[in-house]
Amino acid sequence: MAIHNQDAFLSNVAAHLGRPRRISGVKRPSWSVRPQDRVFAGYSKEELLAVLKKQCQAIHTDVVEVQQSELAEALTDTIKRYRGKTVVVANDKRNALYGLDQFYEQLNKEVDVHIWDAQLGKENQTIAERADIGISFSDITLAESATVTLFNDKHHGRSISLLPKSFIAIIPKSTIVPRLTQAAQQLHASVEKGERVPSCVSFVSGPSNSADIEMNLIVGVHGPIQATYIVVGDK
Amino acid sequence: MRLMKVSLFITCVSDMIFADVGKHTVGILERVGCEVDFPVAQTCCGQPAYNSGYLQEAKQSMKQIMLSFKDSEYVVGPSGSCVGMLREYPAIFKGDSEWEEAAIDLANKSYEITQFLVDVLGVTDLGSTFKGKVTYHPSCHMTRILGVKDAPQTLLRHVKGIELIELPIKEDCCGFGGTFAVKNSEISREMVKEKSQHVAETNAEYLVGGDMGCLMNIGGRMRREGKNIKIVHITEILNTHEQGGGIA
Amino acid sequence: MSIKLGDLSYQQRIEKGIENDFMREAVSSAQGRFRNGRLTQAEELGDWEDWRQLGSEIRTHTLENIDYYLQQLSEQVSKRGGNVFFATTAEEANAYIEKVIKQKNGKKIVKSKSMVTEEIGLNQHLEKLGAEVVESDLGEWILQLDEDPPSHIVTPALHKNKEQIRKTFAEKRGYDQSDSPEELAAFAREQLRKDFLSADVGITGCNFAIAESGAITLVTNEGNARMVTALPETQITVMGMERIAPTWEDMEVLVSLLTRAAVGQKLTSYVTSYTGARLEGEIDGPDDYHLVIVDNGRSKILGTEFQSALHCIRCAACINVCPVYRHVGGHAYNSIYPGPIGAVLTPLLDGYDDHKELPYASSLCAACTEACPVKIPLHEQLIRHRQIIVEQEKKSPIMEKIMMKGFAQWASTPAAYKLSTKLARTALKPWTKDETIKNGPGPLKGWTDVRDFPAPAKQSFRAWWKERQKGEVRNGNS
């Protein structure tokens, strides 16, 4: 696609910097300090999970830990607690892996379950907008900030974690890393390898909120009003 | 043991208005075994002009200071702000072939009095005695420009009989800021009102600090408001001890 | 709007700010909470000084090579199906955005909070064209309904109380519930949801662009930026040209500093990095994407001693510790960028003529410099501004110039200085009572209007020293 005015603009920038324009060969220096590597360094998955659970309290997010065999039950409980009548779910390969395909089929008898379907186009958004609950798997989970990282694509719309009133994230324990540092390293590494990074990477930490009115914390503004994380032992 | 030779950098405010601060500083330095001299050619550190943007005018003043202390081994003054200014000289005279070396030399040998006692001499207890409720205001330039946060409080904690009360939001500026107090007097007034309120909340009898500019500002405001508090420079407390002492 | 907010004089603005009790109470309490949040988070993270150093190194390297990284960014965005427009001025940026909207026949535009669009006056420009522009950040929406400018760069409606907000909602949108923040927010959610779903065009700012991926990172708590980037078919990102990080790893560090320094959070609820148009088969995200990179005076800051002002990550930590801001509020700066960073940036972007007082609106207490997560020496830059105002712009008052000349003479002539120490007390005698001056003459007046001034010592230190030396000589101690 088009790039307008690039040359004039960047030449002017270089002139102000008092040197010829730099077009190639710029290397990031190695920084004199790297405090980001020291945060929770050497923590086991269990220790990181404890960090995540603690942070969930700070961000008004419920967290439950289950075995794989208990996942369906945990989802049912959460959906009931949120009085969910309609649910929108990412069309994730892990649904099958975790036996959720059958579960959603079963659930569909009592609750309206919509699995994201690229073939349906914009209707997915309309469904998500009406849905009570959105359910996604976390791709990378950041313990420090209790954040789920979602690699959005055609099977995993951005709307799922955004438009419904409630959000449920399923967190495979193996996805837990110390902090944003590790997610950024992974993304940087894929760029270096020439891989395509997702068109949208969403780092989501609990429900939406605002402090714009007299600095009072209001949980639930434009995005979901409530959130639950279900941490599940790995397949 | 050879006596440590120290040149007193009095600061213009203490020279003219608060002469006792100089006397206490001399008293303390002599008590810890320093040989004190007073280069009489010294004037002002140049800060009023420098902070107002008058660089050329400030430099004239700074050159006079550099000349005055060129032969000194150590330069010690009773003000975090003024000593902080001396420490800025190398940046100000950077690239000036005539003065840069002198600027670096002066910056390297200049210390605020409590910083000198604790960091250079390793003295934390002067054996001082002071009876009374005291709250300490850490001035902005002492803490953030000069980087001296602990030395004054370490010394105060070792004073016998003292009752130290923590000043709320103590790191907040009192609104002095040199010419700021005059040029932006409404804003300065609101700042010093707030500081005065915080000092009053401590119910201290004495407000102590390491910069007379700030103390003159807070004390002057509290007096105007009819609030009863005595302002004392930290050297006055540190120079008060059972075996005589006081002003030499 | 543009950078400058209005036409009141500096003196009028200061007085108006100081007289606004509600605003001052609100700002003071917000500053307390921000300060505690920032300090708590910095402590929990550990090694805060190392983090600041790292942030500073990343920003320094990025700005030194900004042409390289902007080129990389624009090529990556283009590769991912986005259009890029480099705008030298506000007018160019607005004209390009206008063209895009007209081409798409856009009628309704939904925005997420962006300082640079305030800076270029985009809303006013688009409204003149007859488009409906909706601000979706709760604070910005409140201000938009009330036609009031922001007073803080992170919490723009800090100066408003909930009763004022209730009234605004009632008058402008027929709101009929209480002034509880929850009910007010629920109403905003319901109203704005309709706007998100019906808008043709979404416009956002940019916290950090990631050069290596052509990704734009937005940091929010409300989720409005996600709505704006996910739902409308056309989407435009407007970024100040310095708001860029080389890689994901650098973005990570800057975001970690930003959320802590700005709001005392480990991360905000949403940090979203997106690249241009949606990919084949994707449903959410725009079909048509434009990135507008704005100079508007920034390039002329490069290569000067103010270059590090462009390191700013817009966290407002300097604003949140500033005692001057606390007492006068954001509007007193008469700039969309208030507080210490505003006092540094505004004259650089918009000239000294309208903003020559700002660099003096600081006691130089350096709380800003200490709080800045990327180590911008803000108070030093304020002094540098003052030097330029005095020496190059020649805008300092004549009386001040005379006094400073006098100061230089006095302080460089030991005899004159010594004489003044002798005469000061006598000279001030007419105004002195009980060792106190309550109504000082000349320059002392500004001082004594506010507080007492002490009478000079009966004997100067140097006079005492001289006597003491003589005494010691007499006593044979020398």
Helix content of chain A: 25-40%
Q: What is the CATH C-level name of the largest domain in chain B?
A: Alpha Beta
Counting DSSP E segments of at least 2 residues, the number of strands of chain B comes to 8
Distance between the termini of chain B: 23 Å
Number of strands of chain A: 13
Question: Can you give the mean pLDDT of chain B?
Answer: 95
How many domains, in number, for the residues of chain A?
1
- SS strand fraction of chain B: 15-25%
Overall number of structural domains of chain B: 2
Low-confidence stretches of chain B: 244-248
What order do the SSEs of chain A take from the amino end to the carboxyl end, as H and E? EHHEHEHHEHEEEEEHEEEE
Q: What is the radius of gyration of chain B computed over CA atoms, rounded to a whole number of angstroms?
A: 18 Å
Shape of chain B: globular
Strand order of the largest sheet of chain A: 2-13-8-5-3-4
CATH architecture of the largest domain in chain B: 3-Layer(aba) Sandwich
Oligomer: heterotrimer
Chain pair with largest interface: A-C, 86 and 111 residues
Rg value of chain A: 21 Å
Summarize this, please?
By secondary structure, chain A is an alpha/beta fold. Chain A is built from seven helices and 13 strands.
List keywords for this structure.
heterotrimer, A: 235 residues, alpha/beta, Rossmann fold, 7 helices, 13 strands, C: 478 residues, 6-stranded parallel beta sheet, 4-stranded mixed beta sheet
Topology (SSEs and partners):
The complex is a heterotrimer of chains A (235), B (248) and C (478).
Chain A: E1 3-4, H1 6-16, H2 45-58, E2 61-66, H3 71-81, E3 86-89, H4 93-97, H5 100-107, E4 112-115, H6 123-130, E5 133-137, E6 140-142, E7 147-152, E8 166-172, E9 176-177, H7 180-192, E10 200-204, E11 209-210, E12 218-219, E13 226-232
Parallel strand pairs in A: 2-13, 3-4, 3-5, 5-8, 6-9, 8-13
Antiparallel strand pairs in A: 6-7, 7-10, 11-12
Chain B: E1 4-8, H1 12-16, H2 19-31, E2 34-37, H3 47-51, H4 55-68, E3 74-77, H5 80-92, H6 100-109, E4 110-112, H7 113-120, E5 129-137, H8 140-145, H9 151-157, E6 160-165, H10 180-183, H11 185-201, E7 206-209, H12 212-224, E8 230-233, H13 234-238
Parallel strand pairs in B: 1-2, 1-3, 3-4, 5-6, 5-7, 7-8
Helix pairs in contact in B: 5-6, 7-9, 11-12
Chain C: H1 10-19, H2 21-45, H3 48-64, H4 66-79, E1 82-87, H5 90-103, E2 108-111, H6 115-119, H7 122-128, E3 132-135, H8 138-146, H9 162-173, H10 181-198, E4 201-204, E5 208-210, E6 215-220, H11 224-230, E7 234-240, E8 244-245, H12 248-263, E9 270-274, E10 288-294, H13 317-321, H14 323-328, H15 339-350, H16 367-371, H17 378-391, H18 398-411, H19 414-428, E11 432-433, E12 436-437, H20 444-448, E13 453-454, H21 461-474
Helix pairs in contact in C: 2-12, 3-12, 15-17
